[in-house]
Design brief:
Radius of gyration: 23 Å
Number of helices: 5
Number of strands: 14
Distance between the termini: 34 Å
Helix content: 25-40%
Structural class: alpha+beta
Number of domains: 2
Largest sheet: 8 strands, antiparallel, barrel
Length: about 325
């Protein structure tokens, strides 16, 4: 699962620091440039491929279903998703329909230019992606935001034991401010360099330890190797784990408003109730239902609004 950028939307973007009892507003505030950043993505075009196949029990990679050719165009027209006035032709989105709707732009139309397909023993099989919509979410003090796309999948697709179920499908990509990402990438490089040095120093010391015959010197070398391991573990606790989700330069694509979008995202669905009467699903909040990770989405090609303005006939889909 190392190739998947996990998007803990509720924990990272919606979690607020508890200030209850100190007279401060504990309700998380929205990123000040959220609306502007979302509006700037009008006419953004992306082509996406999918690698579906996660074992439900182990959450590790299983058989694969590869879908290619999903072509999308981002629109800026809002769709009212919040019931009861909402347009029920569109999927519910986790931000505007979740516990912190103020952190979302609200649902916007996502034009499906072309649905994806896969090849099996019967030839090319098309998989309908309908009712596309998207939202951008970003908390004021969060290091990154999220773009979430929602689709209705009328019919399931299966190949070699891997299945894309019918239902509402979500695709999430992490969103970074370009300048902030460069700072975080520099920090990541420093932490990873220090970690590699610790491991190399430990290996060098152990080589000397294995060659040393003097018991006292061996004990000193063993202690030195242990100190390098402890230093590495401290880096893990304070640095390595925190930089694992920072993408490298090759793993992001530039979009408008000085933003960078990760080229790999997560594909997931909201589960129905695992047990108990099905009628309970109508009274349990939608956002409380368990997320089921299905696989990875990868952006193959993209074009921004600037490309379209400079050449109105421009399209990555031609």
């Amino acid at each position: 699962m190392k190739d998947i950028y996990r998007l803990p939307v509720l924990s990272i973007l919606f979690a607020a620091k508890s200030t209850k009892g100190f007279g401060f507003d504990s309700y998380p505030k929205v990123h000040p440039s959220l609306k502007e950043s979302a509006s700037a993505q009008e006419h953004l075009q992306i082509s996406v491929k999918f690698d579906i196949g996660i074992d439900k029990e182990s959450q590790e990679r299983g058989p694969h279903l590869y879908l290619n050719g999903l072509e999308l165009k981002f629109c800026n027209d809002d769709i009212a998703l919040s019931p009861p006035e909402g347009n029920q032709n569109y999927p519910k989105l986790p931000g505007i329909n979740g516990p912190r709707p103020n952190l979302s732009t609200g649902g916007k139309h996502l034009e499906v230019i072309s649905s994806p397909s896969f090849i099996d023993h019967q030839g090319i099989q098309n998989v309908d992606f309908k009712n596309g919509c998207w939202e951008m979410l970003w908390r004021e003090d969060a290091p990154a935001g999220t773009v979430v796309c929602g689709f209705d999948i009328p019919n399931k697709a299966t190949r070699n034991g891997a299945t894309l179920p019918a239902g509402t499908l979500y695709v999430s990509f992490v969103l970074w401010n370009k300048d902030d990402l460069m700072i975080e990438q520099a920090r990541k490089k420093i932490v990873e360099t220090e970690a590699r040095k610790c491991l190399k120093d430990k290996d060098d010391i152990l080589q000397k330890y294995n060659k040393e015959s003097n018991i006292i010197k061996k004990a000193l070398l063993y202690r030195s190797a242990t100190m390098e391991v402890e230093k590495y573990h401290r880096l893990q606790r304070s640095g390595i784990l925190s930089v694992q989700n920072i993408p490298d330069a090759a793993d992001v694509v530039p979009i408008r408003n000085n933003l960078m979008l990760t080229s790999k995202g997560t594909v997931w669905m909201k589960n129905k109730l695992d047990s108990g009467p099905q009628q309970l699903s109508s009274v349990i909040p939608w956002f409380s239902k368990k997320q089921e990770l299905l696989g990875v989405a990868s952006i193959q090609r993209h074009a921004t609004k600037k490309d379209v303005i400079e050449n109105p006939a421009f399209s990555i889909f031609q």
